[in-house]
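Input chain follows. Return structure tokens only.
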Amino acid sequence: MIHSLFIINNSGDIFMEKHYKSVIHRNICDYFFEALAKCAKPEDIPAVISTPHHKLIVIYRKKLFFVSVVVNEVSPLFVIEILHRAVDIFEDYFNDCTEFTLKENFVIVYELLDEMLDNGFPLATESNILKELIKPPNIFRKVANMVTGDSNLSSTLPTVQLSNIPWRRQGIKYTNNEAYFDCIEEIDAIIDKNGSTIMCEVQGYIDCCVKLSGMPDLTLCFTNPRLLDDVSFHPCVRFKRWESEKILSFVPPDGNFRLISYHIESLNSVSIPIYLKHNIQFKEGSNGRFEVTFGLRPGLGKSVHSLIN
């Protein structure tokens, strides 16, 4: 599957590389740099770059390029998901994923890449499993490792590896039990001159931060679940119950995770939570004037927070 992985900064420096099979020379990244030179912005880099003998599958996050090299036929979306999952794991371990933090913790980064992929195939991608295998870094552990020569690798296998709930470990205890759910939606809409919605599509997801003791079993219901389309779930969700009752039933992982992502097809019957009004004026012999006013619609239930235009 993934033959090699190169991590490249915005300056074009390959500061980290990992090879799961035979070593592929850095010259393979020349095809990536050629494609990048044709892009106006780093975000415009093609996700798949063809070479005579390999395919490069690329993501751009946190001002870093993660370039994976594949030789055999493989689903690009599968590889892209693994790369995004690796970045999420780095953020969970180091609270950020930048060139500095990766270099500062390069030993743990290589240990994580070794455990996440076995011979290039995904093995352990759940944060709870990895944290039992590789202890997250802290200042006291770094000092102790420097003095004793130990590593962050655990001497015992994770207990959740043999469980039917591998995303949550046993014996979790909190003094204060709490769970937070953030519903984030991106709205793509066409609005006419009167402010009425002509077309509207919504791309949304629910991010969770769960800190509950034991093995909680949660249920989440939607007011109108029939609107949701192209739904993608975290593995903790019981899919059969969703299919039959349209209810999310799950034993959550510990900490931060994305529960669900969804898409709402083009429609005009649902009111979007903001209003938009415009005013265009042109005067002969002078420049025109264009004004846009938008705000939150009243009377649509809970108010909207952190609006980004």
